[in-house]
């Protein structure tokens, strides 16, 4: 099945009520997802999502479970022998009223990764790119748009991913781990916007300060990505690695395969005379 046909089928599935309701532009979608649906069935308004992407000046991607298949902090915790403890804490944090920054601190206080562990972890556990992301990033850039990575993860784990995708490190927002001179863990930089609740939205506001008229789209799997719009103009949910029901329910646009967003037939191929990064 070719891509445009695939999109039409997906949109038809939404229209026919498979996802519970069809959203008008600008409205909030309240639907109850059918847990028996396959990931493919969970797509929402795919053709419109592709159009939104084509019309974006800046596309910001979440990293963990979006650009890459894994959750970096969980993988790092497992590598440092603290996987179970951290997973338990994450579960508890999600139930209660722990702020993002406190949850991050609690988990890092358990892992306490040294600089050497980080180096060895990156070498032995390179991140796995999600299917189609490399082509999608190139597609967005060829359309004259800029690509950013906005992550609640750590810059030392994300930079190799940015380099692999050809994204300048100046276009990366992520948390920064701090180390003592002997390489022991010393904490994290609490000045980074992504270290706080609502931080991805703050990162987008920073981008908007530099590019005030830009049409900005956030793409991600998580609630923090969804909540970054606004200030992002649009949000496209991604469920290719994990489908989070809250996000799939609330997102106006949802795809489970990045290749669904590449529809060159609809592409306007903007020529903005801007930095093609
Ligand atoms: Mg994520």
From TrEMBL:
Its cofactor is Mg(2+). The keyword Glycoprotein does not apply. GO terms for biological process: L-serine biosynthetic process. It holds the Pfam family Hydrolase. GO terms for cellular component: cytoplasm. CDD domains: HAD_PSP_eu (cd04309). The active site is at 62 (nucleophile), 64 (proton donor). Its EC number is 3.1.3.3. Residues 1-20 form the signal peptide. One of its GO terms (molecular function) is magnesium ion binding. Pathway: Amino-acid biosynthesis; L-serine biosynthesis; L-serine from 3-phospho-D-glycerate: step 3/3. PANTHER family: PHOSPHOSERINE PHOSPHATASE (PTHR43344:SF2). This is Phosphoserine phosphatase.
